[in-house]
C-alpha cells in the first residue's frame, strides 16, 4: 500500500491513552519525534508520533534508550492529564490494506468504539500512582541469635580443615532453611498490612538483588497521593518491628501494572514486537 508518490503511508507509534481535557504533550518522543494527540477532544485520546519505519529494534543500549524516551512521554501524560493508560513499547498502528483506512482513521475508530471502557478506567486511575515494595530477610542478621546456628559455629572452632568445610556446608543449609521458614511465616501478615494501604496490589517475582537476602514479598501498589505517605509510614513500622528485614520502596510512577493495554491494539498494529523489545 503506497500513496500517490509511491511512498508507504505513515503509521502511528502509540505511547499512551489520556482522558479528555486540555492536556498538550510537553516532551518529544523517541529519538526526538514530535508527539501529538489523536482522537475526539471530548473523549479519550491517544498520545502518538507519526512513524514511517518498522518496530524499533537494535543493540541493547539503543533499546534501553528508546524505552526510557517512551516512558518519559507516558510520565508527561500522567502528570499533565491527571490519568494515563500506558501502552507497551513498540505498539505501532498502520493503515488497513483491505479497507484503505489510514492509521489515523483506524485509531480514531478504535477510540470511539472503546470510549466507555477507556473513560471508565481512566476515571478509576485518576490521581493514582504506582509504588513498588520489595521486602526481604537479611539471612545473617536473622539467624545470628539462633541456638542451632550458634552450636554449629562453636563446633567449627579448632576443627581440622576438612571437618570445618563440612560444618560450613551444614551451617549454610541450616541458615537458608531457617530464613526460608521465617520468610514464609512473615509473608501473610506483611502482605495484608501493605494491601490495607493500597487501592490495588499486584505481586511479581524477581531473584534477590543481593547475596544473603531471602525474598519475602515483592509487589506493585496502586495508591492515591495520601496513600504514598500512609504506605511509607506502614513500612517504617514494619522495619522497626523486624530489624532483620530489608525494605526497598520505589516510585511513584504511572500505574503501569494496573493499566494493561498490551492486547488492545492487536487488530490494528499488524506487527510483532522484535525480540529485543521489553
TrEMBL record:
One GO biological process term: gas vesicle organization
Compartment(s) of residence: Gas vesicle
CC terms in the record's Gene Ontology section: gas vesicle
Chief location category: other
InterPro entries: GvpL/GvpF (IPR009430)
Keyword Chaperone: no
Keywords: Gas vesicle
Domain of life: Bacteria
Classification via Pfam families: GvpL_GvpF (PF06386)
Entry similarity comment: Belongs to the gas vesicle GvpF/GvpL family.
Protein name: Gas vesicle synthesis protein GvpL/GvpF
Organism of provenance: Brevibacterium aurantiacum
